[in-house]
Amino acid sequence: MAPSLSDNRTLHILNAAAAGKYGVLAAIAYNIEQLTAIVRAAEAKRSPLIIQLFPSTLKQLPTLAHAAAAAVNSATIPLSLHIDHAQDEAHIREMMETLPVDSIMVDMSHFDQAENLEKTRILAKECHERGIAVEAESGRINGGEDGIADTGDLEALFTAPSDVEDFINASIDILAPSIGNIHGDYGPSGPAQGQLHFDRLESINKQINDRVQIALHGTNDFPPQVMQRCIRSGAIKLNVNKLILEVWNVFLRENASKMGIVGLIDEGMNVLQKETERWMDICGSSGKA
Ligand SMILES: [Zn+2]
């Protein structure tokens, strides 16, 4: 029997979070240490968690997705494996066929709107036939992340009500709206006053009316209260990268010349686990598994 979306782990996690009015971290891991630390945080906090890998990481570390899937299968809390910003159609089809993924962000935002929607619709159908859920980005979220085409030369476009309907009609499951959020750094104190359009997020959420879930991209430098405001406005899947991983980067930078490799890995994982736990508390997902 073909796998069904009703069994999809990512959607189960997000639907429960939407019903319970809390947010779930969708945390990027670049290596096995980071993967291990975020999963340990989820277990320690009894929190659901979405593990995110970039397509570039799948190529750099071909076994990491399988390690993540092993973590998903052995965890005592709800976990899922999501691929962030998949922009290459051939690579997306390869992922569908060869990797144990629960959901994929089909990011065709580098095409014009009509082509974006058409490609998204076709890929979503193929994913759904395999029980894989699909996220897409509407409008353009400016900036570049690892291995992702930078859309900074294109006009930053906010998500309009018509975009919401267009993407829902393309059969996606998760929508990443553009509400002033950017890929990259806002600066040490986070988004400037007025940079994030919470009212726009709220009206998008109302318009969606539970038909799909909302993902928030571009959370670097977010203060806790900004994250919580986004959750109250309807964001459920919270993509985090540097927001959580920066403590790991700093720890390695400061200790790489002083510690042996085993200690460095141990202590680095501890630091990252604690930081992930802190954000699970902030997002309200602790104790919800
Ligand atoms: Zn993103």
TrEMBL record:
<feature type="binding site">
    <location>
        <position position="137"/>
    </location>
    <ligand>
        <name>Zn(2+) 2</name>
    </ligand>
</feature>
<comment type="function">
    <text>Catalyzes the aldol condensation of dihydroxyacetone phosphate (DHAP or glycerone-phosphate) with glyceraldehyde 3-phosphate (G3P) to form fructose 1,6-bisphosphate (FBP) in gluconeogenesis and the reverse reaction in glycolysis.</text>
</comment>
<comment type="pathway">
    <text>Carbohydrate degradation; glycolysis; D-glyceraldehyde 3-phosphate and glycerone phosphate from D-glucose: step 4/4.</text>
</comment>
<dbReference type="InterPro" id="IPR013785">
    <property type="entry name" value="Aldolase_TIM"/>
</dbReference>
<keyword id="KW-0456">Lyase</keyword>
<dbReference type="InterPro" id="IPR050246">
    <property type="entry name" value="Class_II_FBP_aldolase"/>
</dbReference>
<dbReference type="Pfam" id="PF01116">
    <property type="entry name" value="F_bP_aldolase"/>
</dbReference>
<feature type="binding site">
    <location>
        <position position="85"/>
    </location>
    <ligand>
        <name>Zn(2+) 1</name>
    </ligand>
</feature>
<dbReference type="InterPro" id="IPR000771">
    <property type="entry name" value="FBA_II"/>
</dbReference>
<dbReference type="GO" id="GO:0008270">
    <property type="term" value="F:zinc ion binding"/>
</dbReference>
<keyword id="KW-0324">Glycolysis</keyword>
<keyword id="KW-0862">Zinc</keyword>
<dbReference type="GO" id="GO:0004332">
    <property type="term" value="F:fructose-bisphosphate aldolase activity"/>
</dbReference>
<dbReference type="GO" id="GO:0006096">
    <property type="term" value="P:glycolytic process"/>
</dbReference>
<feature type="binding site">
    <location>
        <position position="217"/>
    </location>
    <ligand>
        <name>Zn(2+) 1</name>
    </ligand>
</feature>
<feature type="binding site">
    <location>
        <position position="183"/>
    </location>
    <ligand>
        <name>Zn(2+) 1</name>
    </ligand>
</feature>
<keyword id="KW-0479">Metal-binding</keyword>
<comment type="similarity">
    <text>Belongs to the class II fructose-bisphosphate aldolase family.</text>
</comment>
<protein>
    <recommendedName>
        <fullName>Fructose-bisphosphate aldolase</fullName>
        <ecNumber>4.1.2.13</ecNumber>
    </recommendedName>
</protein>
<feature type="binding site">
    <location>
        <position position="107"/>
    </location>
    <ligand>
        <name>Zn(2+) 2</name>
    </ligand>
</feature>
<feature type="active site" description="Proton donor">
    <location>
        <position position="84"/>
    </location>
</feature>
